[in-house]
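Morning!

This is the sequence you dropped in the shared folder:
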Amino acid sequence: MPHPAMPPRQRRARRRRYRTLLRLAGWLSILLDHFKPLRVPLLILAAAAFMTAGVGQAAELFVIALWIDPDPGRYLWLLAGSACAGLAAWYAARHAYRMVYPRWPALQDPHARALRDWLPRGLGAAVPAWLVLGYLRASALVPPGACQLAEACGRRDARALGLLLESVALIAFFAGRRRLVHGWCRWRGTPAALAPRPSQEPRARKLSQLGRAPLRVFAGALLLNVTVTALVAWRPTLFDGSGPLATALLAASFLTLSGSFLCMLADRRGWPLLSVLLLLTAALHALHLNDNHRVRQYPAMSTHQHPAPPPPDTRPSFEAYANAWLDDRCAGRSPCPVVMVSAEGGGIRGAAWTALVLARLTALVEAQRPRGAGAPLLARYLFAGSGVSGGSLGLASYAVLLRAPAGRDGLETRTQQLLGHDFLAPTLANLLFVDFTQRWLPGAWFDDRARALTRAWEDAAQVLPGGAAFAQPFSALYLRPDGRVDTSTPALFLNSTTVAEGRRFIQHPFRPLATPQHQPWAAAFDGAVWLDPRVPLSEAVLNSARFTYISPAGTLETAGATPAVPAALQLVDGGYFENSGATTLLEVMRQLKDIAARRGQALRFIVLHLSNDPALTDFVDRHDPAHFMPFYAAACARPAAAAAAAPSGEAVAPFQALLDTRIARGAYARIQLLRTLHEDEGNPARGDLLWHFRVCPGDYPIPLGWTLSAPVFDELRRQLEHNYPLPAMARELARQLAPPGVAAAEISAR
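The structure's back. Tokens below.
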């Protein structure tokens, strides 16, 4: 049956829809063509939007910059940086539209004049507006009570309003400056220097036709970019104190002007500049021709140098350290109390929580002792600590600051002075200037951003008593000037992960523990075999805390390769294998127990496990808390039972399993630690303790990055004081650790 003829009204409506779709497709094509000359500022804004919306650690940066930070100078840096980035985006886009590109004829379409007039203005004003939106998103994640905790409620909206006014001022400047210039020229009686609208300015077929002023601006930006890169390479902490956001905005300003100028030059000739640069850096990376991420083997070494042969090994042996420690602490004591610490990773949050808990417990235990009783009791009986990532930084900070003589500022105050420093700004400056430049150059020429991070640690510690040890060899902490073993510092075992093998890489200050006859580490590398005896403490901490992308994977080269010792390993964050540090701690405990058994001594272990994941449930509660936690109070409210995870698709499931097994390995290590302490339950004299200190979801968000604000320390202190019976725990520790001559009644009375 033939299809009936369509009524004329329906045919006209269909033709109108077709014409509308064609017009929309035409406008979409015009819009895409107009985006192409602006791809550098658009890519930068897209990356900034992704970081703001998709990276949780970025939220703290907005909260610090626009709410918490009491320094008005850093806020002025932020205003200046956002203004520079906005002006750079506008200026680059405005002159990109003046060029004639044979490949994109739509840029000459007269119907798109308004787009060419307002898109550069919108890009320029979007920079401070993006900061305001990032702050609003970040502040929405802050619990309601955090305003009182931060004690900066009146400042939170004023700074955001300042950026919003800056965005409005930029729009007013972009839109009104031509009228001002024309009015000034009319008053002076001179010809107008600018066309009435940007789209009416004469088009340029060569860069030289843009005029002297634009060429001078672009050339000056290139020269200044090179100058700043050289200054940052010479002094990695140049931007220390400016703030991470201001540093990133300044780098974006240079990249926008320099990158847009080079793209204009290439687009005019039809060269795919960005594609060529991407292929170049991919080829250099694949061929390892520009690797500047080498692990520093001694303080004078740079990350772009090959190491020199190591000197004779003067490090003490672990057995000598253990015997000297047992001689000094355990003479006449059976069982002898031994404090062990495992500190989980978690960026600066893990470092702050680890050092804060240990500093507070040290002070409280000392308050229970008789006056003038010598070295701090907890520190004296702390034999070893196993750290991962930020936990390694926390353990190193505690150990270094502990060596300094007690002054007016307590250990906890000095801990905040050290870890409250902004370590992220210099790291970002080196990432965005030096490392970014290195990616396009064959050969390794500059120190990398990881070296900037270790320099920031060293500089922050240098001003504190004892802090110079961060820049000195790791093993120097355990040797006296006369060459004897120094047991005043707890033995630090800092865990990293090898890339190709996926194994733990255990760094410690002693001679290699592994021998052909004895292998103390289960499926792990003994770092002392590969590391130079002079490796700095800051570098050992860095190898454990090579946080994803913020710190690059480190290439560890050995001077003399053998079949048993490969020529190179690649190290990443210790949390890739397992984030608890408990696996290495167990192996250290077993070695110490074997040494004590040969001496005929019994040990009582007091294990402090410091975790930094708010989602972690308390494994001790589920395993006989009466035995392991005599003075324990639940740190976090028990979370509701988690719903079963939805099945993943076949494309995502393998990657999801690889990521989740890391968490499962940590849970397995904690359970193994509990089982080991259960082994001697039949010996009531031993009485092992396991205390779990964990960070909870609290009244203020606690980030994972490399910068912390003062309210974060306040929140950590609040959790420590509110969630744990610290006085009772301190009395128990003092009772366990007190020498036999100190009566238990005297400690209880205190």
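Headline: Residues 625-634, 639-643 have pLDDT under 50 and may be disordered.

More detail when I'm at my desk.
O.
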